[in-house]
Amino acid sequence: MKVSFHGHSVVKIQTAGKVILIDPFISGNGLTDLVASEEKPDVILLTHAHNDHVGDTVELALRNNSQVVAPVELANYLAGQGVETVGMNLGGAKEFEFGTVKYTKAFHSSSYTTPEGDAIYGGMPAGILFKAEGKAIYHAGDTEVFGDMEIIGNRNEIDLAFVPIGDFFTMGPDDAAYAVELIKPKTVVPIHYNTFPPINQDPEYFKGLVKGAEVKIMQPGDVIDY
């Protein structure tokens, strides 16, 4: 399994001969190393409906016949755009041929703004717990810290966690470090920072706060091999 980071909250997982993209915000993302027209995901997993997470989903899915897994209201909207979707909800898990996807709580908001300026309700925001090849990867999505992260950590041996540290729209470095104590991952990667001025942060400051986990500050394109 290969897991790579591509700026903002974009994560790519390669497993079981499949390419999985989480929150593929590529076009308009000044930090990413990806080019939307060159990506060929088999599967797209979405945490919530905000445009900086849905990103290039429709274009990618239509061009590559990608399966899109998303919170159910967002999945219903994307299905109306011609995309093949699987709509899930918090606490629900499904075993796919490429691995198991479970949606967890996140505390945030969730709406998609169309090119015409209309706001589409995207359902509950979520985190994603992905399991494959004996590994568990937790993508927290956009969220504040919350006590039930301890449940996620207690009930799952998490190998790798991606947590937002940008503050302003999500938890900042101090709260994110506390979240790591609750989640108890072996390795944690900070995400959702430095993409826009309001979320500028120093990941080294976050690293210095974290206890009990290895912190990897990944640059766009960096890969973790399992």
Automatic annotation (TrEMBL):
<dbReference type="InterPro" id="IPR050114">
    <property type="entry name" value="UPF0173_UPF0282_UlaG_hydrolase"/>
</dbReference>
<dbReference type="GO" id="GO:0016787">
    <property type="term" value="F:hydrolase activity"/>
</dbReference>
<protein>
    <recommendedName>
        <fullName>UPF0173 metal-dependent hydrolase BN1080_02184</fullName>
    </recommendedName>
</protein>
<feature type="domain" description="Metallo-beta-lactamase">
    <location>
        <begin position="7"/>
        <end position="192"/>
    </location>
</feature>
<dbReference type="InterPro" id="IPR022877">
    <property type="entry name" value="UPF0173"/>
</dbReference>
<comment type="similarity">
    <text>Belongs to the UPF0173 family.</text>
</comment>
<dbReference type="Pfam" id="PF12706">
    <property type="entry name" value="Lactamase_B_2"/>
</dbReference>
<keyword id="KW-0378">Hydrolase</keyword>
<dbReference type="InterPro" id="IPR036866">
    <property type="entry name" value="RibonucZ/Hydroxyglut_hydro"/>
</dbReference>
<dbReference type="InterPro" id="IPR001279">
    <property type="entry name" value="Metallo-B-lactamas"/>
</dbReference>
